[in-house]
Specification:
Length: 351
Amino acid sequence: MDTATRTPPPPADTDVAAAPAAAAPAVPSLAVGIDVSKDTLDLARSDSSHVATFANDPAGVAAVVDLLAAADAPAPAVIVVEATGGLERPLVDALLDAGLPVARVHPGRVRHLARGLGVLAKTDAAADARVLARFGQLAAPRLAERHSRAADDLRALVVCRRQLTVTRTQQSNRLGATAGSKPARRAIEAVIKTLDRRVGRLDKQIRDLIDADDELARLDGLLQTVPGVGPTLSATLAAELTELGTADRRQVAALAGVAPVNADSGKTSGTRSIRGGRAAVRCTPYMAAVAASRFNPVIRAFSDRLRAAGKPNKVRIVACMRKLLTLLNAMARENLTWDQLDVVKKLATNP
C-alpha cells in the first residue's frame, strides 16, 4: 500500500461524523416526481421503482398530499412538477398549503435531462414521473413559494390581458390583409372592438386589484416613479417577476431572459446571446427600454455610451433592458423611489 497518500486519522476531538457530511454533495435524500395530465397524476419516488397513479381531481390531489405528508413516511426533500399550462396549479397549491417542498419546472429542462439519460420516447407516464424524480435529485430546482390570493389573481389577469392583446394584434394584421371583402372586414372590426372593450375592462380590474393590496400598491408606486415605466410593465413585473427585490441583479437578468450567455469553446470566443428566462417578462420591458433610452436620463446616458462604442441597436436595447431591470430590482429591494437612487442623485448634481 502507498502509505504516502494515506489520509491520517482525525484527532480525538474532531467530529468525525460531521466531516463527510460537509464534503458530500447536496443531493436530496428523497425526490418525488409527479407527472400531471388532464385525468391522472403519476407519482414516482427516487427510493422506489413503483409509480402510483391517482385521479387528477380534488380527491386524488388530497390522496397525494396525504401520502407525502404522512408522519410515518420519509419526508421528501423536493417534489418536482412540470408546468403544464395550469393543469398542475391545484396540485401545487395543495402541496404548498401542506407545507411540502414543491418545485414547478419548465418541461424543456426536464426533456434535456431525459435525452441525456437516454429516455427518448415520451409515451410512458411512468417514465416521465421517474425522470422528474431524477431531475429533482440532480438539478436541485428552486422551490416554489406560496403567494397571496391577490398575487395569484393579478397574474391570471395579466396573462389574460396579454393573450387578448396578442389576439387583437393578429386581428388587426388580418384586417389590413382583407381589402376586398366588406363583410369580412366588418366581422374583423367587430372582433377588434370587442377585444378593445375587454382589454380596457381588464386594465381597470388590474388597477383595482393592485390598489386594494398594500404590498402590490407599494411596489407599483415605486416602479412607476421611473421614467419609461408605465402601468403595464409595472403590473407584469409584480405578477410574473415576484423575485424582484429579493434576488440579485444577475439572477433577475437571468429570470427575465436578458442575461448574455457565453458561446465559447476552447480558444474560440463565440458571440454572446440571450436565451431562456420568462418570455412574457422579457417582451414587456422591451418597449419600456426603447422609451427609457430616449426620455430616462440614466438609461439615455447608458444607451449613448453603447451607441458611441459601435454596439448594434438590438444589443444596445437589450443592455438597456438589463440596466433598467437592475435599477428596478434595487428600488424594490431598498424600498426607494427613482429620485432616491444614488445613480440618479449623482446625475442630478453632475449634469
